[in-house]
Every structure is written in structure tokens, then in C-alpha cells.
């Protein structure tokens, strides 16, 4: 779940 | 980072720069929807608040700063500097019909009920419809200058490339974000015309 929160896209 | 995302970001950056230079050089924003530009500035503001909280990479941070800077500069040129050339009569799309439903949807459908996440979701949904005032204005004036069509093409291409990026990331990283994908498909379809 936390990687969905990590917004690495612009 | 993959080739689709990089070319997508560069296409997005190109669109933003094309528009800014066009307004600056011709000293006119005729045919440009100021409302769409305000919506884009709102999209970047609500999406890139994490500039203050998390650092991902120099590329990520610098692109976000450039996007925010250029979008506000564009809004400034339209509504302040070259206000006399702003075609308000044709830029008559009721943006509240976009912002309110998008805001409601962001509160209802999101990954996590936290302020930052809801604002991010709001920006994703808003970006998919932010071009509507511009398309509406072109339909009313019945014409689009060549440079505006280049701008729209690059802007449409950017999210289409992101769709490939998401396919790539799902296949190689098992990562996918349904909200971004659905909104990205809607956005790309809107540009097709």
C-alpha cells in the first residue's frame, strides 16, 4: 500500500 | 524511470514551454483559454505539495518546480500582462461544473483518506478534464492557431505515453495505480478529437 502512496511520477 | 515516462515528461514540458513562448513572443493570448491554464496551475499546485514533504530525485523536484513556475507564469501573462488580448467572451466554459464534481469524486474514490492523498487524487481527476475549456473555446471560435494545435498534440501525447509507462511498470514492476490509469485513459480520449 505504501508504494502506491509514494508518488514518484510527475 | 522508463523511456515512455521520460518521453512523456519531455512532451509535457514541451507543451508547457510551447504555449508560454507563443504567448510571450506574440504578446497575445488570443485563442488561449485562460480557464484551462488556471485549472492546470491548480492541478500542479495540488499534486506537487509533496515538494515540501518528500524528495524523490533531482529530476523529479526540478520538473515539478518548472511545471508550477511555467503554469503560473502562463496564467500571469494571460490575466495580467496581456489581459487586453484575452478573449473572455469565447472562454466561457463553466469551470465550477468541473471542479465541484471532481472534488466530490476525489473525496469518495481515493487510495487513502489523508489530505495529501485526496489533493493528489483531486489533481489527477482534474487534469483529465482541465483541457475542456480550451477545447470548448476552440469549438466556439471554430479555429485553432497552428501553435495551439502543436500545444494540444504534445499535451495529449504526454498522457498517452504515460499509459504505456503504466503498462511497462505493471509488467516489469507489478506496480499500477488504477486511479491514475482510468483518469489517464479519459484524458487521452478527450484529446483524440
Task: Itemize the secondary structure elements and their pairings.
The complex is a heterodimer of chains A (10) and B (193).
Chain A (H helix, E strand, L loop, with lengths): L1 H4 L5
Chain B lengths: L2 H24 L7 H14 L10 H24 L14 H13 L6 H15 L2 H10 L4 H28 L4 H15 L1
Helicity level of chain B = over 70%
- Structural category of chain B is mainly alpha
Based on Cα principal axes, name the global outline of chain B.
globular
- Overall pLDDT score of chain B: 96
Shape of chain A: rod-shaped
- SSE sequence of chain B, one letter per element: HHHHHHHH
Which chain pair has the greatest contact? Answer: A-B, 9 and 21 residues
Alpha-carbon Rg of chain B, integer: 16 Å
Low-confidence stretches of chain B: none
Specify the number of helices of chain A: 1
Oligomer: heterodimer
Task: Please report the number of helical segments of chain B.
Answer: 8
Q: Could you describe the largest sheet of chain B, including whether it forms a barrel? A: none
Class of secondary structure makeup of chain A? mainly alpha
Give structural notes.
The complex is a heterodimer of chains A (10) and B (193). Chain A is mostly helical and 10 residues long. Chain A has one helix at residues 2-5. Chain A is rod-shaped and about 20 Å long. The model of chain A has no long low-confidence stretch (mean pLDDT 67). By secondary structure, chain B is an all-alpha fold. In chain B, α1 runs parallel beside α3 and α1 (3-26) packs antiparallel against α7. Chain B is globular, with a radius of gyration of 16 Å. At the A-B interface, α1 of A face α1 and α3 of B.
